[in-house]
Design brief:
The structure holds two protein chains of two kinds. Chain A is built from 15 helices and no strands. Chain A has two domains: 47 residues, no CATH class; 275 residues, MetI-like (MetI-like fold), CATH 1.10.3720. Chain B has 13 helices and no strands. Chain B is mainly α. In chain B, 76% of the residues lie in helices and 0% in strands. Chain B is globular and about 85 Å long. In chain B, 33% of the residues are buried. The chains are: A mainly alpha, B mainly alpha. At the A-B interface, helix 7, helix 8, helix 13, helix 14 and helix 15 of A face helix 1, helix 6, helix 7, helix 11 and helix 12 of B.
């Protein structure tokens, strides 16, 4: 609290004097003393009453106006787990991006001298090798790239679809809303995994892009409901009416005036979608309906590991652990973002 | 209330019919389920032609949908494309097996979640609360199939080390299961790991729900009033708070249960359990639209029914909710 309101430290009876002496005009007439970024160097001796204010200057505390986003940023960086997760995820993303440089071996490279090696530092087989001597660390790194790519693609595409449908339904209401929402309900009625499996089985799978599109075509539904809800309440607001009165087009009102107000839930939802997409894609690939060779994917690696018997426990363990670490990090980041972007939370401290 | 239920059911029927046509269209329009037969040796053109004739595969998609609807109504969902095997008896068999798995797992998950959720909420920010929250975060980030595999790996490692089979890692029964009590015990033994996996898969979500609901109720005005007028603490938590905090969980469980009757696809596949989920996966692998359609219809009906049950339960439990 002291960070924002140094005036609270000053005894009430001295406040008026402080204001008069320092000669600073508060721009919004707020009770807090508006302190400029740099202490004014008046060259005069400070009167005794302003000593505490001077103390605040000395400590380098400068209250300043913050935007909604900078509040959000500060709150996010207070969430320790979210920040750690962000770094972990960035590191994993970096490894995935430069897979061919980072991985000690190629994806399908055989090391026939180290067949079924358990995890060892010898020859850099940290995650062990399989029956063909393929290095599982390298396979996990390449699989990571595909899985992360698919998950990001799913999050972006389904966010785009969900936002568009939700916005149209919420903004126009009436028949349009009814039709779109009944369609959304229809998709929600069917069991998600079953629809995904059916789609993959009958439309062919294997290719990451196809799997991504199929996932996105299912994953947009919850977001559409959220966006619609926000839009339904926003369209009654005065500023939307004002925009309409001044002749703004529907598209402009949706995109410029209303959409920015849904960004909070949108960002949180998109983040959590990445984790959901990784888990579901892994399950699909594991069952044999997702990404298939020659494309590497984490779920497929686990299935391969299972196929080689449970004595080679490392083949199942490490790709799975990688998925857990990614999903856990993303969930923590999502949690931090949810707290940070909640507009009802103005407090920075605590 | 009654009009509400009737309206919902009527609306659901329309949704089901629409969904059935959409899925039928997509499933039959893509791929030729007989392609593998055509290239197989020992299969004469005549026998392929027989299948085409029997299932009217040469007709238009609308006609075929009509034949399918006729089969659903008059012939218990008809037969499979390959092998001409009646679908419904198979579905009933796997449904019974799935029910055993799902009911056991759900009951355990609910009991544990209620206990953990309530205790965490009453001791918010305690060591117990923190460790349970971390546990549910971990649970939400763990792929179910991987958890199942890791348990199997563990059992196999124990077997390698000690020569003792702790739990079976596949199938519903032993080959020589016997009958009566020994059969039941054998079945229970086989279900330990699958039930554990399915329970953990749902536990994280249930616990978070229960904790959140309990926290909200505990901090509400009427609970403070109850305390202020001198109701004993135990009575406040059990009678005033706990009963109301259960309402959200009841609806969540109802919805989830409906979805699970379609089988725990992943769990059943990993443990090769002859349930709804594995039946569905096998139907997909054989590219046969008819069992896929039958499965989807039954599962969708279950989901719709249990969603309705959830809403009705909500209305009965929470007097503030009214349907009209």
């Amino acid at each position: 609290m002291t960070e924002r309101q140094p005036s609270a430290e000053i005894p009430p009876q001295d406040r008026e004097e402080v204001r008069l002496d320092s000669g600073i005009v508060t721009p919004h007439g707020s009770p807090a003393v508006a302190v400029p970024e740099q202490p004014l160097d008046t060259g005069l001796e400070l009167p005794a009453a302003t000593e505490q204010l001077a103390l605040a200057y000395g400590a380098g505390i400068t209250p300043k106006a913050r935007s909604q986003w900078s509040y959000a940023r500060i709150r996010f960086f207070r969430h320790r787990l979210a920040v750690i997760s962000l770094f972990v995820l960035l590191a994993i993303g970096f490894v995935a991006l430069f897979a061919s440089r980072v991985a000690p071996y190629g994806f399908d490279e055989l090391d026939l001298e180290n067949i079924t090696a358990s995890p060892t530092t010898k020859d850099q087989h940290y995650f062990g090798t399989d029956l063909l001597g393929r290095d599982y660390l390298s396979r996990v790194i390449f699989g990571l790239r595909t899985s992360l790519w698919v998950a990001l693609f799913v999050a972006l595409l389904s966010t785009a679809i969900g936002t568009t449908i939700g916005a149209i339904a919420g903004y126009f209401g009436g028949v349009v809303d009814n039709l779109l929402m009944r369609f959304t309900d229809l998709i929600l009625t069917l069991p998600t995994l079953a629809v995904l499996l059916t789609a993959s089985a009958f439309f062919g799978s294997g290719d990451p892009l196809r799997v991504g599109v199929i996932l996105a075509l299912i994953f947009w539904t919850p977001l559409a409901r959220i966006v619609r809800g926000v839009f339904l309440s926003l369209r009654e607001k005065e500023y939307v009416e004002a925009a309409k009165a001044s002749g703004a087009s529907d598209i402009r009102i949706i995109a410029r005036h209303m959409l920015p107000n849904t960004l909070g839930p949108l960002i949180v939802n998109a983040t959590l979608l990445v984790a959901g997409a990784i888990l579901v894609e892994a399950a699909l690939s594991f069952l044999g309906f997702g990404i298939q060779p020659p494309n590497p994917a984490l779920g497929k690696l686990i299935a391969d590991g299972q196929g080689e018997g449970f004595n080679l426990w490392w083949l199942v363990t490490f790709p799975g652990l990688t998925i857990v670490v990614i999903a856990l990090s993303i969930n923590f980041i999502g949690d931090g973002l949810r707290d940070a972007l909640d507009p009802t939370q103005r407090r920075v401290s605590g | 209330m009654l009009t509400y239920i009737i309206r919902r059911l009527l609306y659901s029927c329309v949704v089901l019919v629409l969904a059935s046509f959409l899925v039928f269209f997509f499933v039959t329009a893509s791929g030729d389920p007989l392609a593998s037969l055509a290239t197989a040796p020992n299969v004469s053109d005549q026998s392929i032609q027989n299948i085409v004739d029997r299932k009217h595969l040469d007709d238009s998609i609308f006609k075929r949908y009509g034949y399918w609807v006729q089969d659903v109504v008059t012939n218990q969902f008809g037969t499979t494309l390959l092998g001409d095997r009646p679908i419904l008896p198979d579905l009933w068999r796997v449904m019974k097996n799935t029910l055993q798995l799902v009911i056991a797992a759900e009951l355990l998950a609910i009991l544990l979640a209620v206990f953990i959720g309530v205790y965490s909420a009453l001791r918010q920010y305690s060591g117990f609360d923190y460790s349970m929250t971390s546990f549910s975060f971990l649970g939400l980030a763990t792929p179910v199939f991987w958890l199942a595999l890791m348990l199997q790996v563990g059992v196999v490692q124990i077997y390698e080390a000690t020569g003792h089979r702790v739990f079976p890692v596949a199938n519903l029964s032993s080959v020589d299961a016997g009958s009566g009590l020994s059969f039941a015990l054998d079945r229970a033994h086989h279900l330990v790991l699958p039930v554990l996996v399915l329970m953990v898969a749902n536990l994280a979500t249930y616990t978070r729900y229960m904790r959140a609901a309990m926290l909200e109720v505990v901090n509400s005005d009427y609970v403070r009033t109850a305390r202020a007028k001198g109701v004993a603490e135990r009575r406040v938590t059990m009678k005033h708070a706990f009963r109301n905090a259960l309402i959200p969980l009841v609806t969540l469980v109802a919805i989830n249960f409906g979805a699970l009757l379609g089988g725990a696809v992943v769990t059943e596949t990993v443990f090769s359990l002859d349930g709804m989920g594995l039946y569905f996966v096998n139907a997909l692998f054989s590219n046969d639209p008819y069992p896929v359609m039958a499965w989807l219809m039954i599962t969708a009906t279950m989901i719709i029914l249990f969603n309705l049950v959830a809403d009705i339960a909500y209305g009965l439990l929470d007097p503030r909710v009214r349907y009209d």
